[in-house]
């Protein structure tokens, strides 16, 4: 990246932990995480520092401990970071000016490309199938990764429940694999990832897409998932140069790439709606009158809003409460629930949504249960289908139960060979076989 005139990074709350002297040295920065609670920045002398919550080891410091003081990543100092992206775990993928790729952080779906599902606590170079390749661009979906090489080849790896890796199947991809199919003889010039979809622009301006398409976001004129690259015919005759993908209508997991030269001014909006104002005040210690303590972390909230929005809190909150310690659910689940009360939406990965579904059932939050089911559906694959079906039955989530059952029937051969099926509860197995028989799943 070119030398940058520093934007006012101090506008980000996370940078309030840095001294003015440290802020003056920042040349590049990337604020990431679902709440902007992690940051990686590069100084004028090409030293790399990280700061923040460190969820899933995403800071690369060798542990999962949060840090309120900048820590230097010696392994990346002097590497000259060219581009960086991150997923929702989060996991981090970056490329250097030399074209080397480094990954670390959340790795439950092999999104780090190292052939394992162990979280990466330090930056490690990804070399499998990328030897002698110079990577010039990186992109991350929720739990999958994609890179573009200088010779126009695209490589993907990680979570593949909707075909977002482009391999033609829905099996997760543990190491980088070149995307071929329609891109076999094409030179790709730009890439982008959505939450569970991928896009590529080739040198003649054509756009190819693949992955999750449940809402028609691929632009193919249908709502079926696309397991291999497919050209967007509706753009025929239009020469596209670059593409950008949003994860949702609301700003969930937006990619803040390394800073580029921008001349802009941001002015406060004097006409916030009630919904926007409430969303802005979530976890705001300046206005909150109550703190929840979960797993050693505080979440700042407002009693009156909790009483208005939730029958459970209306019955347990007292006016003199200042701190309430919660231990029944994890921090991500409680935080997602409390944020839901402010925003009427949820933002957390599918694997955490089961815990939120449990909470929603316990607190009798029916709308929240529906939102959880929608999120969980996006994370289904052959390996976890039985576990999700079991959760749906346990929490009486009928819509999710039917969805999981249909998925199992459509992928019956693979599902019945998984460990989850082998360990299936006896009563659940009996009901599954009976129901599958009624829909003709075992006919020759």
List keywords for this structure.
444 residues, 4-stranded antiparallel β-sheet, globular
Biggest pleated-sheet summary: 4 strands, antiparallel
Estimate the global geometry from the Cα principal axes.
globular
The residue fraction in helices comes out at 10-25%
- The radius of gyration over CA amounts to 23 Å
Q: What is the CATH third-level topology name of the largest domain?
A: Methylamine Dehydrogenase, Chain H
- From the helix content, strand content and strand pairing, which structural class follows? alpha+beta
Please, how many helices?
12
Strand order of the largest sheet: 1-2-3-4
**What would you say the CATH architecture of the largest domain is?**
7 Propeller
Strand content: 15-25%
Low-confidence stretches: 1-6, 248-269
Total domain count: 2
Separation, N- and C-terminal Cα atoms: 60 Å
CATH class of the largest domain: Mainly Beta
What name goes with the CATH superfamily of the largest domain?
Regulator of chromosome condensation 1/beta-lactamase-inhibitor protein II
List the SSEs and their pairings.
Blueprint: H1 20-24, E1 26-32, E2 38-43, E3 48-52, E4 67-72, E5 81-86, E6 91-96, E7 101-105, E8 120-125, E9 135-140, E10 144-149, E11 154-158, E12 173-178, E13 188-193, E14 197-202, E15 207-211, E16 226-231, H2 274-281, E17 290-294, E18 297-301, H3 303-309, H4 311-316, E19 323-326, H5 331-343, H6 350-363, H7 366-378, H8 385-394, H9 398-410, H10 412-415, H11 419-422, H12 426-438
Parallel strand pairs: 17-19
Antiparallel strand pairs: 1-2, 2-3, 3-4, 5-6, 6-7, 7-8, 9-10, 10-11, 11-12, 13-14, 14-15, 15-16, 17-18
Helix pairs in contact: 5-6, 6-7, 7-9, 8-9
